[in-house]
Amino acid sequence: MNKLSAELKDKLTQKGASIIGFADISDLPFADRDGYPHGVVIGVALLPSLVIRTKNGPSIEYRDETNRITEFLDNLAEYAAQVIKSKGFSALPKTRKVVVTDQQTKRTKLPHKTIATKAGIGWIGKGALLITEEYGAAIRITSVLTNADLDFGAPVTTSRCGDCTECQKICPANAVVGKNWVAGMDRGEIFRALDCRNKIIERGRELGMTELTCGLCILACPWTQKYLKRKLNNEN
Q1: Alpha helix stretches (DSSP H) within the chain
Q2: What is the value of pTM for the model shown?
Q3: Which domain covers residue 212, as residue numbers?
Q4: Are 72 and 78 in contact (CB under 8 A)?
Q5: Which of 43, 58, 160, 188 is the most buried (most CB within 10 A)?
């Protein structure tokens, strides 16, 4: 591993990152990657106790936890960009104030998940979530675009979900099509994002809550279950 890659991994881990990866994204459309050829992916795992509680439906606690982690990820992305710039390279942290989401389609021009699969961190599940061996779907990510030379991971191009349909069965919006992902596939082929969002809004109104995150598909994923069991066993 080259010096900058090792330094980023070490410093970001010390700051609280759960997983870090590096990707060559030079084959993606130039405009989508803002002209940068490489990407850094940073992930933070969700607390097992709060993931487990999603089985009871949306909660303020789960919403607050995901918001906290999102803010934390913004800080980590900005920190990583500062480290990269201190070495003489350019970097663009893809924080919430930078990433533009189309409110009609719920799409961004370069999802963090795309960079994550190219970094070899994981694959896209049937519920359009990033799935990792270490944390299943119980992880949130951000990314930094850069021209720095880094040690790239081997891209993941196919799903490892196989015949599993746990996320499809539990989805209250019937948003999961049930088709396995392959690199380059449009999200709409596997997941109906607007159906998911509309159901979250509907459930929120029933509970008198706003800005909800569902989380049922995260909990249902067998890879997440492995993470939860491992984590809880280590705590006992």
Answers
A1: 3-15, 48-53, 60-86, 112-118, 166-170, 193-207, 216-220, 222-235
A2: 0.93
A3: 3-235
A4: no
A5: 43
Distance spanning both ends of the chain, measured CA to CA: 35
Q: E strands, 81-208, where?
A: 91-93, 123-124, 130-131, 139-146
Measured CA to CA, the distance from residue 92 to residue 80 in angstroms comes to: 9
Give residue for tokens 């050829």: 37
| Per-residue model confidence as pLDDT tens for the chain (236 residues) | 799 999 999 999 999 999 999 999 999 999 999 999 999 999 999 999 889 988 877 777 888 888 899 999 999 999 999 999 999 999 999 999 988 777 777 778 999 999 999 999 999 999 999 999 999 999 999 999 999 999 999 999 999 999 999 999 999 999 999 999 999 999 999 999 999 988 888 877 776 766 667 889 999 999 999 999 998 777 65
How many structural domains does the chain have?
Answer: 1
Residue position matching structure tokens 């949306």: 58
Spatial separation of the C-alpha atoms in residues 144 and 74, rounded to whole Å? 10
Could you give the maximum distance between any two Cα atoms of the chain, in Å?
A: 52
- What the block records as the tokens of 144 is 């930094």
